[in-house]
């Protein structure tokens, strides 16, 4: 059923459609007799026209605005909107699977940049970043986009939410380009990253892209219709290696904590440490090592229908409907090992106050597991937006505009196996193991491993089912009234209702020591592949010490074999019924603004825009979560939480913001502008930071305890006081040199804090009576296998202890459940509070130059960003630091004549802090290394209708890397590959 708001929009859409059904087409009018003898004019098209329009947008706007204008209808400069945005000074992008996905502007990350579609706030959902606010540009194709506008300074009439920038994505409208225009385009895409995964996982070598645009207006100019559609398929892959769960520690060189540190001088094992960390140094040790290969297939469908009706010259109505669907299927196989952090390990270290090992090795008394993990899952994201706009010029001095829309974004599983899953299999044949971090690729050595003697068998597994839906209902009315001779009063009111719902279910089997017998799994289920062949672009891949094999398998077959062997099909399928966690966050905002624009006829004439925006927001949070009921020790280091029942919470909050702004600009001379802007903007906290409801991590750790998270619905938005100054020299129609300085003072930042607390009165067997008895028998605190064997062997049948057999590595299998007399389990609970402030400042230099009529040109920009608030790698406590802060640069070479157009672009982004929590949920930095990429596009106009294109993305085959507290502490390195597109476009 539709709401009254939706029905109103639909009725308007139908009314406009009726007027367009009999729309007559017409060709472009021929030149009249009055103009036939006029002198010929030079018509600028293609790249030059785009550059000129972009400069006009920048020059004629209030405040500091940058943008990109399409070269022609249906021909945007890049195939991905995020990759277009990165060409703008101050804009950096985050890449996923080699493609631009989210943007950072002037050091403020994706969550603090507001994305609009034709001036309307857009919902966003992303299962890889559940409950964030950052818009995923990979959902939108570029064919129907006419402009990207990046507003870097605040304005009273702009919706709030963008501290870094407000990005307006503008689609084509038929009245903007009268007459009949249509085109079709086809492309063939070759993604070389698809060639670097296992043969059994590869997609198609070449995939298609098809797009089309139709736009027409009636001969009398009263009716208009535009329709655009595109379908794009991409088969790709990426290979990644590293310590995805981070490092254990950091520890102090002089301290002994739970036996988890290096042997002290003079103790057994200390002789195996080369250049031992100093007593006052902080050091970290590896937790696990992982190599994985992933094959990704994507199908993206976009479409937009726009209807316009102008019954009289002064009144224009527009109804538009936008649809996008992004379907992604992922297959992943990996090899991983976990370390026991034994105090008798062998290691070598660099010098320094904060260090991680150059090499690290462990020897075990009994064989350990080698994990062979596989995943096969799919997701689907759909975006829908229905909107209506009415613009009325009531009089020569008064303009009124009404705009409303209902938009949704929805992401969920598109596979019977859920939105994310993993089958963990294992061979219990690992003997001595060594890691070498001195090369680009971390080198894992396991010389004694024998998978023939200990065949691969099923271990633990999980099947996640995530779902997220975001809905925005928005209505805005604005007006512009000319007063006096040189002033204009702008005012308006608006209402926005935003709702974000996220649900989550997890079916997990914690049989990490082996789910069934190895004999249940025929050897032909697992295929051996050369591990080094997947990382041939990374230094060290050809090392003779690298373990030689990565095993792949058919997920569906192994899942079925495991479920049959266990005798429980439901345990190996996701829960599509009642979710474990169900959280909804709703924000209702009422707003009003007033601004006065004036042209001042002073000694140095200037223009001013002074305004204020007032907003009142009500927040409501509803959450259903799953309480913990017990803690069970099932394997060497794993303590899964048993869940049961349901818990609910409801929280309301509200806040008001008054946001002043002033924008000044003056023409120092006809080709030179000086601008100054000051004002306040806000950026709202992420949905997961606001949503109530306590969520427990599914598995606690023997040594570090449990993890939990809870949001804070009473969080206030981050408020930024901004100052911007810009000097712009437009020394040619297509050329500009500009310098800009900006400073942002941010308050009410939501700092993430970790609170150690007990939850639900859960007891852990670690430290209990059975545990102490094992220590008294001679087991070391770090030898958890010894402790488990002792308890299962001596207390089987006692309360909480159940031995179920013997695992493949000879260790006893079974469960040890926490008893009421055992210690209370501590949880590291993540929560948020408005307790942080920060300053960000920086400068931009931008040059765009065309070399006369030669056809050659260049675009170059550099952005410097600085904040005194930096992450302190020597501080082990939870810290607040701004994410995404980095310098960036672009260099683009251009050539264009009537037949050819060529662009070569180099984009560079310096190292930046990507997260303050590692893959295991601990407080630790995650840095992304500096990255540079070369892209190439070539166009050839066969005639005025037919053109051909060739594009190459990541032509330099750049790889990506992230590290931890030290530059040598590799967290992951990723190898993908260039992708090439060849296409044709025909204009009718």
TrEMBL record:
Record Gene3D superfamilies: TonB-dependent receptor, beta-barrel domain (2.40.170.20), TonB-dependent receptor, plug domain (2.170.130.10)
InterPro entries referenced in this protein's UniProt entry, alphabetically: Beta-barrel_TonB, Beta-barrel_TonB_sf, Plug_dom, Plug_dom_sf, TonB_rcpt_bac
One Pfam match: Plug
Record's keyword annotation contains Signal: yes
Primary location recorded for the protein, binned into one broad class: membrane
Claim: Zinc is one of the keywords in the record: no
Cell location: Cell outer membrane
Domain of life: Bacteria
Signal peptide (residue range): 1-27
Domain annotation TonB-dependent receptor plug: ranges: 58-159
Keywords noted in UniProt: Cell outer membrane, Membrane, Receptor, Signal, TonB box
Domain TonB-dependent receptor-like beta-barrel: 476-955
Family statement drawn from the similarity comment of this UniProt entry: Belongs to the TonB-dependent receptor family.
The protein's name in its UniProt record: TonB-dependent receptor
Organism: Duganella lactea
